[in-house]
Specification:
Length: 127
């Protein structure tokens, strides 16, 4: 069974840091483009980060650029989202997703029809 599982969410104070993890089973993430989305209460889902196979193309949304970094750990078949300088407006459910395509990140954030999705992890940032 192919699935993605996010972990690492929690409550953090403004200015703090968290690292989210996206662990895969049944698929090798180094062959996939990986995208992180988030959805805050009452808001639409937002694509924030995308990294292509081999990390040749990376996209960071303006809302997270300079604060968030995506890192692959192929040995653990995991992708990390390192989040620094967190703000209350970063509060959301965070989802990782994967697609075996070379074109996802070049179309990001206008592409969201990913093949595989995790169930999400909640990040709450207090002011």
């Amino acid at each position: 069974q192919r699935r993605l599982v996010e972990s690492g969410g929690g409550l953090v104070q403004s200015g703090g840091s968290l690292t989210l993890s996206c662990a895969a089973s049944g698929l090798e993430l180094d062959y996939y483009a990986i995208a992180w989305f988030r959805q805050a209460p009452g808001k639409e889902r937002e694509g924030i980060v995308c990294t292509s196979r081999g990390d040749e193309i990376q996209y960071y949304g303006d809302s997270v650029k300079g604060r968030f970094t995506v890192v692959r750990d192929n040995a653990k078949n995991t992708v990390l989202l390192q989040m620094n300088g967190l703000k209350p407006e970063d509060t959301a459910n965070y989802y990782c997703s994967a697609e075996n395509s070379a074109y996802v990140c070049s179309q990001f954030p206008n592409y969201s029809d990913m093949d595989y999705w995790g169930k999400g992890t909640l990040v709450s940032v207090s002011s």
